[in-house]
Specification:
alpha+beta; Nuclear Transport Factor 2, Chain: A; 2 domains; 6-stranded mixed beta sheet; 8 helices; 37% helix
Length: 323
């Protein structure tokens, strides 16, 4: 009788473990399938709607109650989305968006992209200049029932306007317009999504909210490269430390708040807002953006930033307002 009980217990354990493995394997496969399907939806939007100007195709992949959050406005409903796209194509008839990277987790897809086009129509009140422009951007998309329901987009609008002759930035600014090539991986890929998210939060919220640069060596790899096209591109950790220190020297109550985070393999996309008060003037500033981080051997080794640089410069009275 005892022997029968042992055998029965063994089979029960075997069935439970086997069932659990099968369920986990099935869930894992389903996530991969969903990830590729969701990525393909975004690829279709970029290629068909934005590059090929096939506005009618938007009805197949954009939700009727769609919301698109641009840096300065919200575009609501598919009808207004179609008008927004058409207006952009009127300004840049040969607009081309090249996807540089894609990250998918659950129902969110983050992409980094490079925009190029020729200014042939009015854009932000600026008549046609014929100028060719290039700019970078990062967006996060929420997929629901195989349609894009919501988008948060940060195109480097400041760089676009500068290339149209709208404003000349200070000479010490080094606008790059492109991020440059991804660096060669040194170390091993960090694929622990939960750990990568934790490290990313530390690299944004803990470091920037405290200004404690002693944290950098624990969070960032010594070979860290910072792609930040609108202001500075740092290719060494010491320069990045000076950057953090400089910001905290001129701003009090500096605060970074992560609103959304998407991770896949060794990359994490974080959508955030920043606020702070300039010590000298007492002026309060706030802006938003998205950053994609790449991790290697448990540390951040590379970062790509896209933020509302236009709002920053305008709030600080560095750049003029758009009439």
């Amino acid at each position: 009788m005892l022997k029968v009980r042992k055998i029965t217990s063994f089979f029960i354990i075997f069935i439970v473990v086997t069932t659990s493995l099968l369920i986990n394997t099935k869930c894992g496969r389903q996530k991969v399938v969903n990830s590729e399907r969701f990525k393909n939806i975004i690829r279709q939007e970029i290629e068909e709607v934005w590059n090929n100007k096939n506005i009618t195709f938007a009805n197949e992949i954009i939700s009727i109650d769609y919301i698109r959050h641009e840096a300065t406005e919200d575009i609501k409903t598919i009808e207004n989305y179609n008008q927004f796209v058409t207006g952009f194509h009127n300004a840049f008839p040969d607009a081309n968006f090249k996807i540089n990277d894609m990250i998918c987790e659950d129902d969110k897809v983050a992409i980094s992209y490079t925009f190029s086009g020729t200014h042939k129509g009015e854009y932000c009140g600026i008549p046609s200049t014929g100028n060719k422009v290039t700019a970078t951007g990062i967006s996060i998309h929420h997929i629901y029932k195989d349609k894009i329901k919501e988008t948060w987009n940060y195109l480097d609008k400041l760089s676009v306007l500068v290339q149209l002759g709208w404003w000349t930035p200070p000479k010490h600014w080094k606008l790059a317009y492109t991020w440059g090539e991804q660096m060669e991986l040194k170390g091993h890929k960090s694929n622990d999504l939960n750990l990568n998210k934790t490290i990313t939060r530390r690299g944004l919220e803990e470091l920037w909210n405290t200004g404690n640069i002693s944290l950098i060596d624990d969070i960032y790899d010594t070979n860290f490269v910072n792609h930040e096209v609108t202001h500075r591109q740092y290719k060494d950790l010491e320069s990045y430390k000076k950057y953090v220190t400089a910001i905290h020297s001129v701003m009090s109550d500096f605060c970074v708040n992560i609103l959304d985070i998407v991770a896949e393999e060794d990359k994490v996309a974080a959508r955030w807002t920043v606020s702070g008060t300039e010590k000298e003037t007492g002026n309060y500033y706030s802006w938003g953006g998205i950053t994609i981080f790449r991790l290697s051997s448990g540390k951040i080794i590379e970062a790509w930033w896209s933020r509302d640089a236009l709002a920053i410069t305008q709030q600080m009275n560095i750049a003029p307002k758009i009439e």
